[in-house]
Automatic annotation (TrEMBL):
Residue span, ABC transporter domain: 20-264
Catalytic activity: a polar amino acid(out) + ATP + H2O = a polar amino acid(in) + ADP + phosphate + H(+)
One function term, GO molecular function aspect: ATPase-coupled polar amino acid-transporter activity
Key word Nucleotide-binding present: yes
EC main group: translocase
Protein name per the record: ABC-type polar-amino-acid transporter
Entry EC no(s): 7.4.2.1
Family membership: Belongs to the ABC transporter superfamily.
Keywords for this protein: ATP-binding, Nucleotide-binding, Transport
Protein origin, superkingdom: Bacteria
Gene3D superfamilies in alphabetical order: P-loop containing nucleotide triphosphate hydrolases
Length: 268
């Protein structure tokens, strides 16, 4: 049964409330508890870089924010609105499908694998969701998409199919595609991990530009240089918990926790 969602705490004015707020988020797959109480707040315009060993729950956490997974307990809010399930007085409340759809539109996601439609050109990939999901006119979507392709440095590739693009170019199309839905927050899940080293820089440059334009971003990455230069906050996760978080200049340079130091010594 769907019920009205009670508000746990008063929500501040739009400008002050966090863009993404996670409180004690728990998620399990069968007997495996993957998220063991993640609490994290991302302010509007902030770039949060999420680091941690494989299997620590980073992707699962992003997927919960984007409704690709439902949380078992705790609370996630995007732009002040509750996402998915939350526990309240021992009961779980569920969002209506429409509410879920509306919230998902606020969140853009870029995956390690770009997953472009192979039979569609770069431009067609970018206008797909705006025309099919958001119901925008083809001409308006096209115009916006051309602007987005220019923004990711691919204005001249609008008519090109994914197979004719490099991995880095495909990933930049994927970023443009996510931006085409005009999200309030962008989630990146290891966006450069599948790329040849020489293609990583262009993708990171696009992300840097996006950050500079004021986009709120949560970026799972092992690119320590990017996290230090672009990140406002670095969060180190391990075993489904946040081990430490703070300024990248602290967490990534002088970590307090042994587990963070051990991880950094492996990726640096
Ligand atoms: P990370 O992104 O930090 O590498 P993940 O969030 O992908 O970690 O995975 C955390 C753990 O959850 C891993 O042990 C993984 O095998 C498990 N897991 C992730 N998704 C599923 C799923 N759909 N079903 C079962 N186990 C899963
Ligand atoms: Mg992952």
């Amino acid at each position: 049964m769907t019920a009205t969602i009670p508000q746990a705490a008063p929500v501040a004015a739009t400008s002050e409330r966090p863009m993404v707020e996670a409180v004690e988020v728990h998620k399990r797959f069968g007997s495996l508890e993957v998220l063991k109480g993640i609490t994290l707040s991302v302010e509007r315009g902030q770039v949060v870089c999420l680091l941690g060993p494989s299997g620590s729950g980073k992707s699962t956490f992003l997927r919960c924010i984007n409704h690709l997974e439902q949380i078992d307990a705790g609370m996630i809010r995007v732009d002040g609105e509750t996402v998915g399930y939350r526990e309240c007085n021992g009961r779980l409340y569920e969002l209506r499908e429409k509410e879920v759809a509306a919230q998902r539109r606020k969140v853009g996601m870029v995956f390690q694998r770009f997953n472009l439609f192979p039979h569609k050109t770069a431009l067609e990939n970018v206008i797909e969701a705006p025309t099919q999901v958001a119901g925008r006119s083809r001409s308006a979507a096209r115009e916006e998409a051309m602007g987005l392709l220019a923004r990711v440095g691919l204005a001249d590739k609008a008519g090109t199919y994914p197979a004719q693009l490099s991995g880095g170019q495909q990933q930049r199309v994927a970023i443009a595609r996510a931006l085409a839905m005009r999200p309030e927050v962008m989630l990146f899940d290891e966006p450069t991990s599948a790329l040849d080293p020489e293609l990583v820089g262009d993708v990171l440059d696009v992300m840097r530009g996006l950050a500079e334009s004021g986009m709120t971003m949560i970026v799972v990455t092992h690119e320590i240089g990017f996290a230090r230069e672009v990140g406002d906050v670095a969060v180190f996760m391990d075993g489904g918990v946040v081990v430490e978080s703070g300024a990248p200049s602290q967490v990534l340079v002088e970590p307090r926790e042994k587990r963070t130091r051990a991880f950094l010594s492996k990726v640096l």
